[in-house]
Design brief:
By secondary structure, this protein is of the alpha+beta class. It has 2 domains: 81 residues, no CATH class; 53 residues. 38% of the residues lie in helices and 25% in strands. It is built from 1 helix and 6 strands; from the N terminus they run E-E-E-E-E-E-H. Strand 5 and strand 6 form a beta hairpin. It starts with a strand and ends with a helix. About 4% of the residues have low confidence. The structure holds zinc ion.
Length: 135
């Protein structure tokens, strides 16, 4: 087994894609910036279990590894938001929007039925009145 000492790693898993789109802060809804974070992690340290160390064919990394990843940063909240948190927030927002749309269309449907019933009732009353008036 080959051991590679002091590997300089860039974990793509944590990297924000360069798509030209805006991300919003889950707390204040202002546009967030992308901030690059880096940390040197020793494979033997306690926090090593939170990082994905690179694996090679027939080899592993030992010693200090530099991890580089992106986070979102909201300047007005002075808070960092991880990519995982942002994905979760966006998924939740989309789910809520879908739910609101569904509830809205159901409400519209009910209103349309009520309106149709009212029109029918009024027409019926008018017809009855006309019939009686012509007698
Ligand atoms: Zn914010």
């Amino acid at each position: 087994m080959n051991l590679l000492e002091g590997f300089q790693g860039y974990s793509k898993r944590y990297s924000i894609s360069a798509r030209a789109r805006k991300y919003y802060c889950p707390i204040c809804w202002k546009t967030v910036q992308v901030r690059v974070k880096s940390q040197i992690i020793d494979t033997k340290s306690e926090e090593a279990k939170n990082f994905d160390f690179p694996v090679f064919e027939g080899g592993a990394v030992v010693g200090k590894v530099k991890f580089v990843w992106d986070v979102f940063y909201c300047a007005s909240c002075d808070k960092e938001i991880t990519i995982t948190e942002m994905r979760e927030f966006e998924r939740e927002t989309k789910r809520r929007e879908r739910e609101e749309k569904r509830v809205g269309s159901e409400r519209n449907e009910r209103f349309r039925l009520l309106l149709r019933a009212a029109v029918l009732l009024i027409s019926f009353v008018l017809v009855v009145m006309l019939v009686y008036a012509n007698r």
